[in-house]
Structures are given as structure tokens and as C-alpha cells.
Amino acid sequence: MKALEGVKILDFTHVQSGPTCTQLLAWFGADVIKVERPGVGDATRKQLVDKPGADSLYFTMLNHNKRSLELNSKNETGKEVLTRLIKECDVLVENFAPGALDRMGFGWEQVQKINPRMIMASVKGFGPGKYENCKVYENVAQCAGGSASTTGWLGDRPMVTGAQIGDSGTGLHLALGIVTALFQREKSGRGQRVMAAMQDGVLNLCRVKLRDQQRLDAGPLKEYSQFGENIPFGEATPRAGNDSGGGQPGRILKCKGWEDDPNAYTYFITQAAVWEKICDVIGKPEWKTDPDYATPPARLPRLNEVFDTIEAWTMTKTKFEVMDTCNPLDIPVGPILSMKELAEDEGLRATGTVVEVDHPERGPYLTVGCPIKLSDSDVEVTRSPLLGEHSIEILRDVLGYSEADIERIGASGAVGDMKPQAAE
Ligand code: CAO
Q1: pLDDT mean over 121-138
Q2: Which member of 287, 327, 330, 348 lies 3.0 to 4.6 Å from 353 by CB, making a disulfide possible if both were Cys?
Q3: Burial class (CB in 10 A: 0-12, 13-18, 19+), 372
Q4: Contact, 120 vs 134, CB < 8 A?
Q5: Mean pLDDT, to the nearest integer, of 231-250?
Q6: Domains 8-205+348-412 and 242-331 agree in fold
Q7: Domain 8-205+348-412 -> CATH class
Q8: Nearest Cα residue to atom 26 of ligand 1
């Protein structure tokens, strides 16, 4: 048995933010029915194509364990089928541009009338307010949510991060909202509206920078390198390069081979609790008692010197040797791992965090598995559906349409070409 077994999700999501959410729910055992425009489907199927004719990795890696129903939601018969699906399902998830669902005739008011137990969950770029009607993509959310202004180097442009905190991050937020609403429905018997705005999700993940914004009122941020460099602080939380900026100063430092390998680096944290061990490891035992270095506040104005000295040591070791030396001493360090190293990591394969999946059009490919492990709800990652692969079985098995009804629906153009799958 799976945690969300029996929960039916009407999945109107596309691109990345919404599909991340419904993929997680599918991994937890929900039956996710992805509704896609006939003949077209989710736009990502044909974006970033690496194998002509096959669904892209962009699509496949976001849509595992789902079923695909090709259906035109603007056709009258298509609306009839959708109405039946809304009655049948527990959750409707969507991330259309603002207003698109209302224009289809399936806004929150209508959905509630059709099924008062329905939970309707949406990702939008912004919450209510002056930007609520804007279309939004990942990097816009990173910029509007405080991430870009606090990422990058002081004096340089704001920078976006490779982690998809706007899309996948908001998808995670939405998934939590959905299971919470399902839990409440157990007691209330009612559905509800769940909203996750990408700006809100990014800001939630950037909360430490909002903390620092307020700390600025009390004076300079001493944990930031610019303090030791005597560069004055402005009005807003600055960009801080690779400074941890938190209570335990840290930086990215070069390791042996950095001249040729762009990832021969380690993150090194000067945790106060292990300062004496750090001094011994880097060959600076005198710093243990020197009042300029012995305590965290004394070190703050001289972080550049401290990290330059540590780096002179890390440059004599590979990033893995740094890890092997520091870990037994409880000194927190972490190698900078490339995507190639992660893809080949046997440990991640063993835990199902990286999995290989076979696909009829593409052959085998790698993807991320479920990052959340439940001890009583196993995850088996199965391939993403072909466009409309499950149209007939959904009409027949989920909605109970007869063969004659299915013929009628097919003839009306409400669904895509059902014949190849019908014959299968
Ligand atoms: N049958 C018929 N029509 C369908 C359909 C179906 N099965 N599925 C979608 N459509 C229609 C929609 O109804 C809409 O039509 P109208 O504009 O005429 O009402 C149209 O397809 C396009 O929908 P869209 O506006 O959502 O798509 P877009 O490509 O123009 O915009 C995006 C994409 C992502 C910018 C926008 O959806 C958005 O802002 N979403 C919310 C924020 C979000 O999730 N962003 C993250 C995306 S990942 O980076």
C-alpha cells in the first residue's frame, strides 16, 4: 500500500512548477491523470529535444508515474468529460497563466459547485496584488522573490541560481498544501482552494536574507566578508559571494587540481566547536590561544586571512582527501560535486535518489527519484506517459463510459486520436 493510494488527481499542470508537485504525489501513490491538449500536450514534450521524435528529458523527468489523457477542454464534449472527472477526482492541480481556467469555464466557483469535496490547487507567479495577472517563469520568480539580489558577488550583477527554487521549490510548497488540505477534509468533509505563488515560495526559501535585512538596522553584518574588507554596507542585504553569512563562517576553497578541474573545490566551515582541531589540521596551532584568532568574534574582521590560510592547506589535497581528513574530526566540509559525479554516484543509485528509467521512444535515461523517503510507502519510478496513452482506459475505467460513448467522444474531437492505443 502507498501513502496516497486511492487519491485521484486531475492534473492540469505543465512546464515545471506544477508537474514537480503532481509527480511527487504520484510517487506517494496518488493516481495522477494528466490532461493534455490533443496533438500538442505539455509544451515541454518538444522542448530541448535531444532525440528527434522522442519526448524530451525535460518532459520525461517531470512526469513519471502519471497517466495521460488527451482532451480538448474548450470543446463541449471535452467539457462534459472534464465535469465527470471533477466529480470523480479529489484534487485539481493547475499552473496555467492567471485566468485561463476561468476562461475554460472551470474556475473555483464552478468547480466547487460540481464537487464540494474538491481541493483546487494552483501555482501562480504572484499572489493577489498588482502583479497577480503576470505570467512568470523560474528566473523571474528568483528575481522577484529576493534570491537574485542576494546571490552573486558584491559589486557585480544580481545572479540566478541553478537550483530551480521558483519552479520545483513552489511545486514542493504546493504539494504540502495539497496533502494538508486532504488531511483537513478528513474532518471538515469540504474541499478548499490551495494557492502557492512563486514569489512567496522563493522568499520563504530566502528568509535568512530577510533576517539579515533587519539585522542591518543594528549595524554592519560582521559575518559577511565585506565587514573585514572595510566596505560599507548599503540599505539592503548585499550579495555575499560564497560566504555562509550565518553563525558559522564558511567559504568555497580551492583544492588540488583546481587549475584544470572547474569543480576541484570544497566548502569549508570554520565551526566554532571544532576551531582547535582546524588550527591543528592546517598547521596553525598558535591560533588556538592567540586572542586575535581564538574566539569567533575575534576572527570576524580577519576572515579573509583565516580562509586564505585554510586554502593554502586545502590546495595540497583533493576535495575528497579534505573530506577524508576533516570528517573524522567533525570539521564540516563538503566537496563541490559535478553533475557527472552525481550521475555516477553509486550511493545515490542505491538509495533511489538517482534512478535509471527505460522509455519506449528514448531508451534508458537517468532521472532523480523521490527525495523524500517514507518507510511504509515505497516508490517505484515508472516512465512518463506518451501523449494520450491512457485516454481510453481513463474514459472506460475511471469514468465508466461505454464503448459507444467512447466512440461518440472520439468522434466529437474532444480527445486526440485514440485509435492506436485503442487497438493496443
Ligand atoms: N485544451 C484546450 N486548451 C488548453 C488545454 C486543453 N487541454 N490546456 C491548456 N489550454 C489552453 C489554456 O486554456 C490557455 O488558453 P487561453 O489563454 O485561451 O485561455 C492556453 O492553453 C495557454 O495556457 P497558458 O497561458 O497557461 O500557457 P502559456 O504557454 O502562454 O504560459 C506560463 C506559460 C508558464 C508562463 C503560464 O502558464 C504561467 O504563468 N503559469 C503560472 C506560473 C507558473 O507556473 N510558471 C512556471 C512555469 S515553469 O517555468
Answers
A1: 97
A2: 348
A3: exposed
A4: no
A5: 94
A6: no
A7: alpha beta
A8: 96
Which residues have a catalytic role annotated?
167
Ligand 1 atom with least separation from CA of 164: 49
**Alpha carbon of residue 150 to chain centroid:** 19
DSSP secondary structure, 188-233, as one string: H----EEEEEHHHHHHHHTHHHHHHHHHGGGS--TTSHHHHTTPPP
Q: Is 79 in the pocket of ligand 1 (CB under 6 A)?
A: no
Tell the residue nearest (CA) to atom 28 of ligand 1.
97
Question: What's the pLDDT band for 424 if we cut at 50, 70, 90?
Answer: very low
Distance, CA 211 to ligand 1 centroid (Å)? Answer: 35
Give the span between the Cα atoms of 308 and 312, in whole angstroms: 6
Bridge partners of 268, per DSSP, are: 251, 333
**pLDDT band at residue 419 under the 50/70/90 scheme:** low
Alpha helices in 272-418 (DSSP H): 275-281, 296-299, 303-314, 319-326, 339-343, 346-350, 391-393, 403-411
Please give the Cα distance from 194 to 420 (Å, whole number): 37
Pocket test for ligand 1, best of 15, 70, 96, 174 (most atoms within 8 A of CB): 96
Would the CB of 137 count as within 6 Å of ligand 1?
yes
For ligand 1, what atom is nearest to the CA of residue 16?
48
Q: Rounded to the nearest 10 degrees, what angle do helices 168-188 and 198-205 cross at?
A: 100
- What CATH code would you report for 242-331? 3.30.1540.10
Ligand 1 close to Cβ of residue 140 (< 6 A): no
Q: How far is CA 323 from CA 232, 318, 326, in A?
A: 35, 9, 5
Query: With contact defined as beta carbons under 8 Å apart, do 124 and 195 qualify?
Result: yes
Q: Where are the domains of the chain?
A: 8-205+348-412, 242-331
Phi and psi at 5, nearest 5°, equal -55, 135
Bridge partners, 105 (sequence order): none
Ligand 1 proximity of 47 Cβ (cutoff 6 Å): no
Determine the distance from the C-alpha atom of residue 249 to the mean position of all C-alpha atoms in its chain, rounded to a whole number: 27
pLDDT one-digit tens code per residue, 255-310? 999 999 999 999 999 999 999 999 999 999 999 999 999 999 999 999 999 999 99
- Residue 268 backbone phi and psi in degrees, to 5: -125, 125
Query: Is the distance from CB of 67 to CB of 8 less than 8 angstroms?
Result: no
Q: Is the pTM of this model over 0.90?
A: yes
CA 406 to mean position of chain CA atoms = 38
